[in-house]
Amino acid sequence: MPYIGGSWCGVCDYMPVLADNLDMVQISWAGGFLLVVAVLLMVLLHFIAEPMRWWVYISAGKNDLSLTRYISVFNLSALLSYTMPFKMGLPARIWLVSKFLHVDTKLIIALITADGLLYYSMWGLAGVVSGYGYLDSVLPNARGDLYLWLSLGAALICIIIAWRLGIRNPHGRLKIQIRRVREFIPWRRVVVIMLIIAVDFVSQLARHWLIAKGLSLELGFIDMSRITSIAIFAGMLSFLPLGLGAYDATMVALLVANGIPLKQAIVIPLANRIFSYMVAVIAGGVGAYHLKVRRLFEGGISSTLQSIAGKAGKEL
Q: In percent, how much of the chain has pLDDT > 90?
């Protein structure tokens, strides 16, 4: 599922902005080091959560591959998603899972669909609840009408997406994918999946709050969690690669509306991206080493990805 990041070029552009604002960090070097370690651990937890979900999914089919192999595959695919243009990260992921985890392509696409529905549903619920709480605290007099229109707009977006996916007919693509997953995975495993998503959810809220604490912002965990939930869900709804732009703009706008100076508000999403890239490079590099990455080029990765992209386009 979706990672919050951007392009390598974008991160390079952000570094001078972050460096110019380091004077806002009012904690000791020891405290700063511990803070960075804590944030990196939260990011790492996010990177581990997705392969854990897939390990639970696929282990239902008596796949005896180790969790370490799943983590290596998904961390490498995450790194490719961060570096490849457009949506080429998706066919790359399908190919990596098919090649190294020995899963049928149609089942991979069905699992991507099901996992995406679960992930989007949890973040959507968090975004709606957080939106209500945020409007209650910032715009108490306008929350009724405004929130009603926001909720109706969100519902309309969901209906359009479902319609486009083919749910409008009994043989629609979405129903076909869900049927495949139901035939493959016992429903009791969905509870385990939801728990993993919940841990991932809390880790993302916690890392944003830790970054805010490092900047000495007077924002409680609840307030920062509301802003983070809305921003991440906005990035997911944008359908842009890795939520680029929508997440950042929403985060900054909500922080500023909450009384945070623009200069400090900008630092939080930028720092989050940089920490995410740090973990992506390390975890992806370790994954590549574990999988013996040279094998990726046997038979030509470009032609393979193009073929997978064509198959994925027909199935999704």
A: 22
Query: In this predicted structure, what is the pLDDT of residue 10?
Result: 44
Q: Are 68 and 130 in contact (CB under 8 A)?
A: no
Distance CA 116, CA 95 (A): 18
- The domain ranges of the chain are 8-126+184-315
- Return the structure tokens found at 152: 């109706």
Total length of the chain:
316
Whole-prediction pTM value?
Answer: 0.75
Burial of 216 (0-12, 13-18, 19+ CB in 10 A): exposed
Distance in angstroms (rounded) separating the CA atoms of residues 244 and 79: 15
C-alpha 308/C-alpha 316 separation (Å) is: 12
- How far apart CA 92 and CA 84 sit, in angstroms, is 9
CA distance 50 to 275: 18
Closest C-alpha to 1, from 303, 153, 204? 204
Radius of gyration of the chain (CA): 20
Q: Residue 184's closest CA among 51, 312, 63?
A: 63
Q: pLDDT band for position 106 (50/70/90)?
A: confident
Question: Residue 126 above 50 pLDDT?
Answer: yes
CA distance 181 to 177: 6
> What is d(CA 284, CA 92) in angstroms, rounded to the nearest whole number?
13
